[in-house]
Amino acid sequence: MKKNYFLLLLMFTAVGFSQIPSGYYNTATGTGYTLKTQLYNIIKGHTDNGYAGLYTTYQTSDVDNFYENDGTVLDMYSENPSGTDPYNYSTGSTQRCGNYSSEGDCYNREHIIPQSVFNEQSPMVADAHFITPTDGKVNGMRSNYPHGTVNSATYTSQNGSKLGSSAVSGYSGTVFEPVNAFKGDIARMYFYFATRYENTVAGYSYPMFDGSSNKVFTAAFLATLLAWNAQDPVSAREIARNNAIYARQNNRNPYIDHPEYVNQIWGGTSSTDTQAPTAPTSLASTAKTSTSISLSWNASTDNVAVTGYDVYANSVLKTTVSGLTATITGLTASTSYSIYVKAKDAAGNSSASSSTIAVTTNASETGGTASDILFSEYIEGSGNNKALEIANNTGASVNLSTYTIKKQTNGAGAWSTGLALSGTLATGSKFVIVNSSMSSSCFATSSANISTTATELTFNGNDAVGLFKNGVLIDIIGTFNGGTANFAVDVTLRRKATVTTPSTTFNLSSQWDSYTTDTCSNLGAKRAQIAAIETEEEIVPQLQEVILYPNPTNGNFNIYFNTINSPYSIEIISIFGQRVFEKSNITDSLSTINNLPKGIYIVRINQDSETFSKKIIIN
């Protein structure tokens, strides 16, 4: 969610630095590994509160006072730093339930450095400085894999954390990559561990470790951690967490108190590395819209490690990524762009440019008009509660006889023969295909366009499902050849209102909104029904003083009541018929809605038996 920067400033100035004990770092006077040993002597011998004591620590150390500011558990594997969290946990109420079949079940304790590395020994097993509360499902998916940049994801959590093949130079195994907002947090936890356990770390076997007590990390993983530390500086949340843990353990993470120590010890962007990475190869466009171009390329190599890639369009830097794919946004319709990519390392060396490709964006898409039909909803629920929904927002009727749906089983092998579609789908309407054994409590199968037991409607959370036109894939849910890792199990996915064009590249966090198991309430909702009220402005007497402003807006707007006689509710619906916001029992005269994506929405306000509906345009 949008951060309260005034609050963050107060926390930095009034809370953060003021709570470092006077003289705590007086003996930290050296440089390099000498400084690291001095820090070890400062922070060793901390109070061990026991493994169960972590949950008590979390009640003060990991509370969301920084994003939603709602007092829930702040979980780096589920927190959405720029939007609504997919789910939340209350401290002490949903821990250790033992059922981690899907995200949102329960939270538990995540050892950033797996406890198997140190044989579950104390005090490491209960050191809160590198053990955090996280969703149990995502924690299980991360397993004991090292943290690093992902090349190709086999699993993506609902907040965008990824598991997949490694993009870390020289390491070909599986790695886990958190979202950008928490990469620095995790890097500084690794640096803490390397320092606090300097006396034993040389004996630990782990892909990220080099067997030494000073450097601790392999060159490639060290470069990754240094890059993460630099790109995501210390936050107010980390400062507050450090203070809370100090109150319980009586030791601190020095790299939060003094971020400069990282480069003083491990060198940071050392000038001794003067060798640039090789140029990226096989640059290609994988998808495009009227305003965006998606790209992929093959990895560069480096004598130490590649830490990122700069993507250029018409010689202007557009984005920097750590993996081997990127999407350039904010482009102009029907315009040709010359695109190339450069690799870089932790020392700031840049490679030569990749080959340049020319890509022309699609023609303009206005008023929610799409270039083709696309998947708009996916239900993978309990038992046979499985359904797909296709939306036609092209502005014209579509003959479905050229379209088929195919499935790849368990992320490997060939596509299925295909389930053929038929009939004509009017613009603004939805086409629903369900498993004929679907529970009636979830959806009445008689209301579907197709009810079938065909293999295409027996998908599980690791089966990619594709929409084909004339035998050519145009839209996909999941990753073809993505392996057996689940990308969407026991979940309902609804296409975000900002996605108006089918895509052959699946991105859960940017393309889809996730809902709990057996959420079927929106399936088959006709966009035409929403369009019918786009111009409606029903104002009944008690609500005639309701004002929406500004309109149009850039994503944030206010709902103002001149007088409040009773609580009211707000419901916001996209032009695709998706409910994107809902809140009840509001008593404030002013409600502020933040961070709605670009699009057209209906704001519906209910108070007692009266309703007010008005269109809001987000530019």
UniProtKB/TrEMBL annotation:
UniProt cross-references to InterPro entries, sorted A to Z: Endonuclease-I, FN3_dom, FN3_sf, His-Me_finger_sf, Ig-like_fold, Lamin_tail_dom, Secre_tail
Domain Fibronectin type-III: 279-364
Signal peptide extent: 1-18
Gene3D superfamilies in the cross-refs: Immunoglobulins
Domain of life: Bacteria
UniProt keyword list: Endonuclease, Hydrolase, Nuclease, Signal
Keyword Nuclease among record annotations: yes
Molecular functions (GO terms): endonuclease activity
Domain LTD as annotated: residue spans: 355-503
Keyword Signal included in the entry's annotation: yes
Protein family according to the UniProt entry: Belongs to the EndA/NucM nuclease family.
Designated name of the protein: Endonuclease
Phylogenetic classification of the source organism: Bacteria, Pseudomonadati, Bacteroidota, Flavobacteriia, Flavobacteriales
